[in-house]
Specification:
The chain is mainly beta and 550 residues long.
Length: 550
Amino acid sequence: MGKYKVFNGTNWVDICDCQVNIRNANDTWQLLNPNNCVTKYWTGTEWCPIVCTCICETNYILDPVTNECVKQTTLPATASGGQFYPIIIGNKVTSYSGKGGALYPNITNMALPIQGVQVAGGTYTLYQSPYPGPILTRTLSVVGNQIFNSDSTTTKGRLNISTIWGDRYGEKVWFTVRFCVTISTTKTYIFAIASDNQAKVNITSSTFRGGVTSLNIVNIWAGYTPGSTNEFVDGPFTYWHMLPIDLPAGDHVFELSGYNVQAQAAFGSEIYDISVTALEALMASTTATPADLEPYILFTTKDLVQTPPLLLPGPGQTGITYTCPDGYTFTDCNGAPQCVSPPDIYPCGDTPPLPPCECVAGEVAIGSQTWKCSNLNVSTYRNGDPIPEVTDPVAWDALTTGAWCHYNNDPANEAIYGKLYNWFAVNDSRGLAPVGYHVPTLVEFQTLRDNLGGAAIAGEKMKEVGTTHWSDPNIATNESCFTALPGGFKTDDGTFYGINTFGHFWSNTPNSGSIAPTAYGVSLVHDSGTFTAGSTAFSTRGYSVRLIKD
């Protein structure tokens, strides 16, 4: 499809160019939306739909429902309570799934939960609720089927491949795991389950049946009649029960529980994205293998076998408490407790939003350099000697030694913009910067400029965004996270000028070709994206200072 071109009235152009105007089926010109599946082009004999695939930026995933590119970050959740239990593959014995796979009618609109009951002689029947409700008819896999029938190796039989149990979890307690399935297309899926003891499944979903919380959908009982008072008894796997169910698009959380009777509970579950007709064909085959079903598996309990072990409530515990950072949402799907950030979303075809700046320990890495994220705000040299504050303009103009001041001599400006220093303080042998840092050379500023794409655009990438501190218009993205601020400056005669408009920063490079003491600085301005690295100024000027790591 991508090889086709359309005529825009002047030239032939690729159909996926979103700026293309095409003549549509109504014989009028319109702007092509590359993600609009009803847009059509003329082949010469017929109108055909244009379908272009949206390609999201790195780390973004296309949401097929909204046609948006989405990115979320995850962090481990902080847990209190619970114990670590290894989940391992269950015993591989020939009695598992001794009677093969059983396929039932669609349970979506049935009275739930479906009750599976094993009675004397090994007869196993599924009923609608309340028990004993209508019996569910079933289709069984043929004798010799390798996908669902029993086998003593992991190469055959879904139960022997997917069955799990919790090591050292104890007897006569429910062992519970959770897993999540994200459905992109509303349709019929196959939910499969079996257990050698008892098992039950709950679903929490915002879309299934209009939204449910912990809805019990299936109970599998071995040697037990629902509603009776007899103790649970141990029973072997008999069937690999497969239940068609209509799942709407969205996230669905399944809670799968196995009851331990005489040892650790062994149970298995899988969800298949396969049609009933295709599944019946696999069940009727004696040559198909478990590998033939693999492409259709959306979830298998085998995936819960992981290192490190899962943190689960111990027998008798009510649960585990998890905490997340502010703004993050907790999820424990697949037994991996995580904190999920709010999503970054942009429409397919647009430019993704810039990531938020992360100033770690007051520093940001740009290329091979590490810069401080804020302006210098010290009143002593590295050795502890004080740097004098000079507020008198005449005294400031006469200085030949280091000094500092606040913009407009107003201490309220210090918290945001830091202090303004003359170049004599920058050049003082006692060191203006704390240990581990230094005032950058002009060459280091020029390296920063080049790392950010050159003088014409580097300033835009360095300045804090918005008009909280910079005057409007402020041409800024701050994608470098340098967060340059417009601290203004103090002129040679002691006059203050340019706060909210200019950001001037000293380098430690002197202008050796000048008769009067001058040095090199760098500058940014609110209404431009440029970064000027190399202008000279008298050493008595008061500029901001931004440090670089040694």
